[in-house]
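A favour, since you know our structure tokens better than I do. Would you make up a two-line entry for one protein for me to read? Write everything out right here, beneath this request.
=====
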Amino acid sequence: MKDQEDSEDYLVLRGSALGYALIGEETKRDSFIEKFVESDEPQLEGNELGRELQARAVGKILLGNEADILLSRSKELFES
């Protein structure tokens, strides 16, 4: 995972957060979650974007931050 620390790819960031969580490195996990939720939203649409927004909301919740806007946007996408 060290070779991916400078990546800005949202999938790499999310994967690194999961990897560090699995080996119990919570500080690194939180750092990658923060980078992930702050990264630019990918150019997705429909259910794919809805799932991405949900993943970002989960990250925010794990960090103790508000996620209502992301969850509302996700819900709207799934219901349309």
